[in-house]
Amino acid sequence: xxxxxxxxxxxxxxxxxxxxxxxxxxxxxxxxxxxxxxxxxxxxxxxxxxxxxxxxxxxxxxxxxxxxxxxxxxxxxxxxxxxxxxxxxxxxxxxxxxxxxxxxxxxxxxxxxxxxxxxxxxxxxxxxxxxxxxxxxxxxxxxxxxxxxxxxxxxxxxxxxxxxxxxxxxxxxxxxxxxxxxxxxxxxxxxxxxxxxxxxxxxxxxxxxxxxxxxxxxxxxxxxxxxxxxxxxxxxxxxxxxxxxxxxxxxxxxxxxxxxxxxxxxxxx
Length: 269
Prior knowledge:
- The protein is mostly helical.
- It folds into two domains: 1-98 and 225-267; 102-220, no CATH class.
- The chain has helices spanning 2-30, 33-37, 42-64, 68-95, 119-126, 128-139, 145-150, 154-158, 164-169, 213-268; strands at residues 102-103, 110-111, 179-182, 185-187.
- The strands form two sheets. A two-stranded antiparallel ribbon has the order 1-2. The protein has a two-stranded antiparallel sheet with strand order 3-4.
- Helix 1 (2-30) packs antiparallel against helix 10 (213-268), helix 3 packs antiparallel against helix 4 and helix 4 (68-95) runs antiparallel to helix 10 (213-268).
- The longest helix has 56 residues, at 213-268.
């Protein structure tokens, strides 16, 4: 029994360590441009990490002080959390399957269309009330102003890779035919009806293309990149947690069997 409890305690210590990547993924998302303005999975990820940490700590205490009901609560609770984490991993993958950039002639950067993304993600940015808050958040960052400090010549700008948010929010769509002055100042459009975003562009540095569908698409494209990276971390952690949980179940079962035999031998003698 003591050996099995020590094994369970060690396993729960590993489970506590595995909560760190989950918490780290949540904290990392909070520092990314898209997730800092569109906080969808930020708190679910962090909450799951905290709950797994607490549950693993409960299992560690139950094993160390040999409290069977606490160990049983740990096994049930951890199973529920593993299922929730698996659902989150699958959900993040499914909603980010769609949506990719479009190649623009004579440009190194890509441009993005809102309709390319999953319906669920589109709904997160389509409402005017929702987008006003997100737009305010984006315009308060240095994402677009920083471009003016880096690129002064049109050819340099056209040959550079832009992040999805930079491409969608800081400049007008290429097909509008605007003339480059600097990365956030464009004049004399050739075709104002080529795209609804063409008339949305504004040289006011607080407006730019923040009201454009291309900006919404750029935000979602950035979100997709961030979620895919976080999803890999969560998937690896999920697999490790499942392995740790299965070993813990075996150790708990062995501990219970040893305890039953011990009581039987004591009663027999």
